[in-house]
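Chapter review: from sequence to fold.
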Amino acid sequence: YFWTECLRWLGDYQRLLPRADLGNAEASYEEALECARRQRALTWELCAATSLAQLWAEQGQRKSAADLLAPLVSRFTEGFGTPALRDAWALLESLRCGATRPYTSLRSKI
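The token string follows.
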């Protein structure tokens, strides 16, 4: 299961480079998302989707970002206080309300 998170971290790293490599970051997030889906690891899938949605939101693809997150968030029946789900909900709400600056998780900066 940890490989999914490693791929997500790679995407985060690629975004933080002085010359951010957003194409490779997006590819890393998408690979993490597919890996989590193959493993049927819903929380890891949510983490990867949240990172990808954040990237898309920053690129102006807010609808695509919301469309990615909404069905995932709705699949959860518990764990609403976990950082991953709180971050996803907050980002989704900022996308839906049309906030000009998407939610930035402190957790993703650690």
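Two observations follow directly from the output. Residues 22-39 form the longest helix (18 residues). The CA atoms of residues 12 and 25 lie 7 Å apart.
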